[in-house]
Amino acid sequence: MNANQYKAIPGYQQLVINDRVVMSAIILNIIILFLLSFDGVNHHLYFLEYLDTFLTLFFLIEMIVKLRYLGWQAYIASGWNKMDFIIVVLTTPSLFLIFFDLPNFSLLLILRALRVAKFFRFLKFVPHLNEILDGVGRALKASVFVLIAFFLYNIIISLFSCYLFREIAPEHFGNALISCYSTFKMFTLEGWYEIPETISHQAPLHMEFFTKFYFIFIVVTGGVFGLSIVNAIFVDEMVSDNNNELENRISHLENKIDLLIDKLDELSQQKSSNTKPGINLAYRASS
Questions:
Q1: pLDDT value at position 106?
Q2: For the whole model, what pTM was predicted?
Q3: Which residues of the chain have pLDDT under 70?
């Protein structure tokens, strides 16, 4: 909202939509949900549940005030307000827990936790956020085919490993989905040696060498080269905007240098064509 739109709102309602107040409420809500995640807190700090409900109502009132004074079209025109509206609508049903005892209604508890996502609305205050998002968009477009190829490679290796080792290590390659997860975990180089060591101990002796060589091949091709290529393309495209700005500055500087050289050549030609001493002296005095 701009300054003129704020002037139309009474003072006490401006407090509800003030960014600092809303930010403080969101941080407080995060702390409350963090505390409520511990067993036994509800019994000793039962007031936290009421405070959590109050904050849910506060966020609902904030949205209603903005809708009242901005109107639906102006409110929903903002992408941040769209996200805020969706989150508030999803989390408001948790208010029914005040009136109804629904201990098995886990969906409402999940929706209540989604309230923390309101914190993402304040990402707009991050410096140069638009430039960062533009860079992410360019990086995704540039690396989409590489990501698809990497995903297909993961699927192929996963299926191959599943049919090879599902009887030996069903906890890692029991089906295609588990195998895909295990393969990707090895691509990230996170504990990649644990899986081949487990299989080596359980596999026949003649398969031990093949098993180790096979998983070394997977780690090198998928982890060392595969992810490195994806990261390199993504990061290079992310910073390409900075490179473009630098290239534009260099090009602008080159144009200035070319103009300066042309001007010096022109002056040099004028000086060489002027043979009269008086004119030469006048030119020197003027220069």
A1: 65
A2: 0.58
A3: 1-12, 42-43, 97-109, 111-113, 115-116, 118, 121-122, 124-125, 240-245, 273-287
> Domain spanning 3-125 has what CATH number?
1.20.120.350
DSSP string, the chain: --HHHHHTS-HHHHHHH-HHHHHHHHHHHHHHHHHHTSTTHHHH-THHHHHHHHHHHHHHHHHHHHHHHH-HHHHHTSHHHHHHHHHHHHHGGGGGGGTS--TT-HHHHHHHHGGGGGGGGGGGGSTTHHHHHHHHHHHHHHHHHHHHHHHHHHHHHHHHHHHHHTTT-HHHHSSHHHHHHHHHHHHTTSSTTHHHHHHHHHS-GGGHHHHHHHHHHHIIIIIIIIIHHHHHHHHHHHTHHHHHHHHHHHHHHHHHHHHHHHHHHHHHHHHHH---HHHHHHHHHH-
Name the class of domain 130-238.
mainly alpha
The amino acid present at 272, given as its one-letter code, is S
Identify the CA nearest to 117 among candidates 92, 84, 94, 93: 84
